[in-house]
């Protein structure tokens, strides 16, 4: 990730509060080290230190609470000559502590996660930082996590390829051999990102559409390891269908799930958005699940795909399944 | 994140540098204000702030200065720092005084994190992805990094769990919870055409199988309530910038929080569905039927659920592959939804 060269507003205020505590704690610290810690550019850190130095609190003595040693700064060292106001790194608000804690608890809930003790210790530290009585203001209840998470974690650790049977979004089944690179979730769905030798690229697979997952005796190749994993799970193709959908608030989640193009800033009522799908067959299950809160309005073949799916569901629901 | 191509080459030597920084943004003024509010024991009135804190001597009207001060207070609070407002009874002018309690600002002990702990924290922060709260998470992460004894490696992780925090109301509720603000919103129950206005003392955001809900106390019904965020039809919740402790709703006791959760658990525990699933279908893989079915009914699973309409949504996504054995109300919801979809796409 490239280092950020300029930060503004609240981000910069937060950086400067934090720098004060860090520099006071260290006594003297290279600017480059600060840049590494905060993943920012050298110049940005140096500018922030200079701003801290010129900041005044007003009042009868018009004082500078942190007097920067500018000679040292010119040599790449951040330190204060004097600091009438001695401060530590700012603590987290109870909300911030709650968000980080919720993330930690979620990590610990992943099957096969081995650092549970470390997480417990960190959770205790998060509690002492909270400015108000600590409350679990953000919490989660996980359901049954897909049993394949454990097998795939094993394959990742061992650096071995996996084979499985896969049903894609359009309902077509195929057998796959994939070199696993990363396990990713968007709660509660888990995805495997893995390299497909045949196609020469990284693909994403939903764990809940995999069957018969097996670790096979085939090493993950260097080619796979050096392949780029995109940030987004879904990558747009030139051949994608562009579909226009009307969504009510109950179906706004479709906007983020499909990275929809949403030109309006409306926060209520019906929104008209466009989404991209590789095959029209994937629309039926998605739109039907919303039960009327999302309606495809164009193109006609997309409307038909949804209608056919819903009608098939109504017709076949009672008949095609054998009940013991 | 705002990005700009402004040249910074002229900003080299103090004091010329000062003016250049001031033109960049308000972070220096806010920094000075923060330090002034921490440095005062008895608090500062607005008049004192406008007179002495650098950046406020603009020559603008008092009204404009007050607006500036309110914006700055909001920015500071948004970063999770608490500004206290109080009045001294013996003061005749009754102006509010403001201060930041040092103990509420600073990290309480000299906590240090190892590189491994910091990596876990980075991973925990990543759980929030691009969610609506990611600004606050990033601000927290920056502070936590300062407590590390070595920079954490930015290596790509093999494991990347993420929450689903898509609903736009999430951040508003998170703020309302931490500021103990009573909120009102429009909530549409499944099967009802019109939304109803509801009030809530929000206590907690809870994700149940990937669906976020807000849990709290309904002051009208005088009972615990849970609302699914997706069913809130106005996606911007109105919040205020009040300062008096008296305006906040009472903080929930640990017993109340436990009871609210037990209440929801008890509600969910009573819900059980039996589904027959077509072998080899996508639904079969999704529900892991081969692991969960019994020998007597190898195509059937029994599962608990929190909300019948949510389960109906999942089942509709597998329409044609699942037959609802029970309850009948679930089957009805599944089919009603499919019929509506078929009609809307006729």
Description:
- The complex is a heterodimer of chains A (324) and B (346).
- By secondary structure, chain A is of the alpha+beta class.
- Chain A folds into 4 domains: 9-82, Arc Repressor Mutant, subunit A, CATH 1.10.10; 92-142, no CATH class; 148-225, Roll (SH3 type barrels); 241-316, Alpha-Beta Plaits (2-Layer Sandwich).
- Helix content of chain A is 36%, strand content 24%.
- Chain A contains 11 helices and 13 strands.
- In chain A, the strands form 4 sheets. A 5-stranded antiparallel beta sheet of chain A has the order 9-8-7-6-10, with helices on one face. A 3-stranded antiparallel beta sheet of chain A has the order 12-11-13, with helices on one face.
- In chain A, a hairpin with a 2-residue loop joins strand 7 and strand 8.
- The N and C termini of chain A lie far apart (56 Å).
- By secondary structure, chain B is α+β, with helices and mostly antiparallel strands.
- Chain B has 4 domains: 16-105, Arc Repressor Mutant, subunit A (Orthogonal Bundle); 107-162, no CATH class; 169-269; 272-344, no CATH class.
- Chain B is 40% helix and 17% strand.
- Chain B contains 13 helices and 11 strands.
- Chain B has helices at 16-24, 27-39, 46-52, 62-78, 102-105, 115-126, 134-146, 169-179, 254-269, 282-286, 289-292, 308-316, 328-344; strands spanning 44-45, 84-86, 97-99, 159-162, 183-187, 196-208, 211-218, 223-228, 272-277, 300-304, 322-326.
- In chain B, the strands form 3 sheets. In chain B, strands 5-6-7-8 form a 4-stranded antiparallel beta sheet.
- In chain B, helix 6 (115-126) runs antiparallel to helix 7 (134-146) and helix 12 packs across helix 13.
- The interface between A and B is large, with 144 and 153 residues.
């Amino acid at each position: 990730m490239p280092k950020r060269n300029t930060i503004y507003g609240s981000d910069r205020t937060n950086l400067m509060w934090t720098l004060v505590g860090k520099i006071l704690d260290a006594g003297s610290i290279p600017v480059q080290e600060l840049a590494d810690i905060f993943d920012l550019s050298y110049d940005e850190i140096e500018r922030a230190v200079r701003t801290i130095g010129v900041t005044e609190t007003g009042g009868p003595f018009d004082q500078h609470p942190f007097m920067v040693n500018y000679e040292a700064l010119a040599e790449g060292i951040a330190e204060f000559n004097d600091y009438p106001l001695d401060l530590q790194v700012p603590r987290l608000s109870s909300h911030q502590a709650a968000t980080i804690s919720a993330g930690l608890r979620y990590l610990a809930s992943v099957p096969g996660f081995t650092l549970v003790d470390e997480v417990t210790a960190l959770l205790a530290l998060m509690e002492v930082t909270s400015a108000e009585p600590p409350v679990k203001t953000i919490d989660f209840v996980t359901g049954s996590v897909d049993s394949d998470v454990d097998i795939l974690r094993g394959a990742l650790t061992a650096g071995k390829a996996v084979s499985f049977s896969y049903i894609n979004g359009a309902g077509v089944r195929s057998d796959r051999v994939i070199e696993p690179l990363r396990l990713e979730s968007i709660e509660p769905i888990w995805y495997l990102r893995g390299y497909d030798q045949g196609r020469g690229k990284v693909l994403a697979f939903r764990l809940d559409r995999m069957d018969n997952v097996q670790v096979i005796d085939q090493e993950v190749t260097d080619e796979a390891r050096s392949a780029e994993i995109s940030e987004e799970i879904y990558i747009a193709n030139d051949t994608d269908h562009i579909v226009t959908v009307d969504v009510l608030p109950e179906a706004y989640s479709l906007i983020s799930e499909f990275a929809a193009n949403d030109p309006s800033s409306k926060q209520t009522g019906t929104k008209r958005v466009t989404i991209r799908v590789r095959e029209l067959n994937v629309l039926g299950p998605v739109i039907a699940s919303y039960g009327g809160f999302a309606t495809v309005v164009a193109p006609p073949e997309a409307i038909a795909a949804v209608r056919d799916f819903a009608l098939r569901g109504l017709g076949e629901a009672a008949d095609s399944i054998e009940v013991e | 994140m705002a990005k700009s191509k402004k040249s910074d080459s002229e900003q080299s030597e103090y004091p010329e540098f000062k003016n250049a920084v001031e033109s960049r943004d308000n972070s220096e003024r806010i920094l000075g204000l923060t330090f002034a509010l921490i440095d005062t024991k008895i608090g500062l009135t607005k008049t004192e702030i406008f007179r002495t804190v650098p950046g406020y001597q603009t020559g603008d009207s008092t009204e404009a200065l007050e607006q500036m001060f309110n914006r700055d207070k909001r920015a500071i609070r948004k970063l999770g720092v608490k500004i206290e407002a109080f009045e001294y009874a013996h003061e005749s002018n009754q102006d509010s005084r403001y201060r930041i309690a040092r103990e509420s600002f600073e990290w309480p002990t000299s906590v240090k994190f190892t590189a491994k702990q910091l990596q876990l924290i980075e991973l925990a922060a990543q759980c929030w992805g691009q969610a609506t709260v990611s600004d606050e998470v990033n601000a927290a992460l920056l502070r936590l990094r300062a407590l590390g004894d070595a920079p954490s490696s930015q290596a790509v992780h093999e494991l990347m769990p993420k929450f689903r925090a898509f609903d736009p109301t999430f951040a508003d509720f998170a703020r309302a919870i931490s500021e103990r603000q009573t909120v009102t919103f429009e909530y549409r129950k499944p099967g009802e055409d019109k939304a109803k206005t509801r009030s809530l003392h929000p206590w907690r955001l809870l994700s149940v199988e990937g669906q976020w809900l807000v849990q709290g106390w309904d002051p009208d019904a005088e009972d615990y309530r849970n609302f699914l965020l997706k069913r809130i039809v106005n996606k911007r919740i109105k919040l205020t910038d009040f300062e008096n402790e008296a305006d906040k709703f009472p903080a929930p006791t640990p017993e109340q929080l436990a009871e609210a959760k037990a209440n929801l658990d008890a509600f969910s525990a009573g819900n059980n569905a039996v589904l027959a699933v077509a072998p080899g279908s996508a639904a079969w893989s999704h529900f892991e039927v081969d692991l969960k079915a019994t020998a007597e009914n190898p195509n059937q699973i029994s599962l608990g659920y929190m909300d019948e309409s949510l389960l109906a949504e999942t089942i509709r996504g597998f329409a044609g592959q699942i037959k609802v054995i029970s309850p009948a109300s679930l089957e009805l919801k599944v089919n009603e939804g499919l019929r509506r979809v078929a009609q809307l796409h006729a």
